[in-house]
Amino acid sequence: MKNKEILIVEDELIIAENLRFILNKYGYNCVDVAGDVEEAKQLFTIKTYDLVLMDINLGGNSALDGIDLIKHLLQKYDFIYIYITANADEKTIEKAKTTQPSSYIVKPFITTTIYANVAMALNSINDKACFTYTNKGMQDHILLSKIKYVEADGNYINIYPFSEKIHFVRKSLAEFLELYTTIFIRIHKSVIINKHTIQGYNSQYVRVNNKNLPLGRTYKENFLEQIKDVTFLD
Predict the structure, then answer these.
(1) How far apart are CA 95 and CA 169, in angstroms?
(2) For a Cys-Cys bond, which of 10, 196, 217, 229 suits 16, CB 3.0-4.6 Å?
(3) Which is the CATH superfamily of the domain at 6-123?
(4) Which CATH number describes the domain made up of 130-226?
C-alpha cells in the first residue's frame, strides 16, 4: 500500500505540506499537492491517483468547492477520497455524504488520525476490492465499489463505472459474476448490476445511476430475494 499514488488538494500551503510530511513519515512517498481546482484537474491528466485528500473550502476565488471537485473528477477517473475540512456543519456534511467518501476528517487534525484513516482507505484497494485485468498488455484495475453495471458484448464485457471511462474486457458475464456473487446481481441475460448502486425498480426496469436497465422475467425472483436488505441510493 505504501506505493499508492496520493494527491492532497489544499489551498493553504502550510496545511498541505504538513499532510505530506505526515504521509511521508509513515512511508507514503508518492504524494503530490494541488493548491487549487485547476492544478488538481491538471495533475489528474498526467497521473493516476489511488487516494485524494480533499479540502472542502478551496478559497474564495474557486468556482467549485472540494465536494463539487470530487464530483467533477469522478466523471472521468476512478479513485477513493477523504475529506479534510474545518466545516462540520450539517449542510456541508449532508452534501459530502452524497459522494460517499471513505472518511471525513475535521480540522484541526492530529497525526495519528491522518495515518489511521489513510491506512484504512488504502486497505480497501486490494485484490478483493478491485477487479484486475489486462489492457493492451498492461495490468489495469477498477474498484468494485465504483462499478455501476456490467454488460455482455459477445465474448467480452463492458464495465461501466461512475466515471466516463468504459472498461472493455475479454471475459464472459458469467465468469465475472462468479467472482463477485456477493456484490453483483444478474437482472437480464446480458446485464449484471452492483446491488449497492440501485436507486429503485419496477416490474420492468432497475434504476442505476439514473439509467433504467432491463429486468428480465427469468431473473426477477432472484433479484427480489437479493435486495431484501439493500439500502437504495437517492
Answers:
(1) 34
(2) 10
(3) Response regulator (3.40.50.2300)
(4) 2.40.50.1020
Task: Per residue of the chain (234 residues), give pLDDT as tens.
Answer: 578 899 999 999 999 999 999 999 999 999 999 999 999 999 998 888 989 999 999 987 778 899 999 998 887 787 899 999 999 999 999 999 988 899 999 999 999 999 999 999 988 776 557 888 887 777 777 888 889 999 999 989 999 988 778 899 999 999 999 988 888 999 999 999 999 889 999 999 999 988 999 999 999 999 999 998 777 766
How many other CB atoms sit within 10 Å of the CB of residue 142?
18
How many other CB atoms are found less than 10 A from the CB of residue 27?
A: 10
Cell numbers given for 30: 508518492
The rounded distance, in Å, linking the Cα atoms of 179 and 74 is 25
CA distance 174 to 84: 40
**Residue type at 35?**
G
